[in-house]
Amino acid sequence: EAQVTQNPRYLITVTGKKLTVTCSQNMNHEYMSWYRQDPGLGLRQIYYSMNVEVTDKGDVPEGYKVSRKEKRNFPLILESPSPNQTSLYFCASSLKVPGLAATDTQYFGPGTRLTVL
Amino acid sequence: AQTVTQSQPEMSVQEAETVTLSCTYDTSENNYYLFWYKQPPSRQMILVIRQEAYKQQNATENRFSVNFQKAAKSFSLKISDSQLGDTAMYFCASTYNFGNEKLTFGTGTRLTIIP
């Protein structure tokens, strides 16, 4: 089954304790992205990756890091989480190949509910 | 920069009726794409329908259709014969084909289907 998976689905942690949220897709997609969802704000992009070893900032990158060492994986790293990073996080991927005209649809993972105390 | 506005925070409709969710957007791009995503209580983001801006014909997917008014920058979603399973948060989103395919989302409309 084609899918995007995220782990963990729920996480409660404390301020300053480093954590990683994993994201994996089995569709051989080049493009991957992280969003956070907050009430009244919709979803906002944190980071994105066009391909392996190619990553860049989205709209709200402060306090986050990412890496793309393999095509299928795109982990989100919070080096020193703070309460304002309490949110619902989504990973997404699509078959965007640079240089092609068509924009493929982004498929989302199930979400990770993070609470930072 | 793109912006997406959903002016209806909440809506409700009787089962089997038709409902229309509104969305307006602003962009200076010529080549862009519009989407409606559904987020049920499970919080999964599910694609409902997409529309390419260069296509004049409105997209349809079974009971879901859009009214795409390019000049007015309007992209409404019509749900016909609404079902209880349509109860969800609906997000309108846009992206343009230039490097980062960031989706710009509206703030959502919470739709409740009443039995």
Overview of this protein structure:
The complex is a heterodimer of chains A (117) and B (115). By secondary structure, chain A is an all-beta fold. Chain A is 0% helix and 49% strand. In chain A, the strands form two sheets. In chain A, strands 2, 4, 5, 6, 9, 10 and 11 form a seven-stranded mixed β-sheet that branches. In chain A, a hairpin with a 2-residue loop joins strand 5 (42-51) and strand 6 (54-57). Chain A is globular, with a radius of gyration of 14 Å. The mean pLDDT of chain A is 92. Chain B has 115 residues and is mainly β. Chain B has strands at residues 3-5, 10-14, 19-21, 24-26, 32-39, 46-52, 60-61, 64-69, 74-79, 88-96, 104-105, 109-114. In chain B, the strands form three sheets. In chain B, strands 2, 5, 6, 10, 11 and 12 form a six-stranded mixed β-sheet that branches. Chain A binds chain B through residues 31, 33, 35, 40-45, 48, 50, 56, 58-59, 88, 90, 92, 94, 96, 98, 101-103, 105-108, 110-111, 113, and chain B through 4, 31, 33, 35, 37, 42-47, 50, 91, 93, 95-97, 99-103, 105-108.
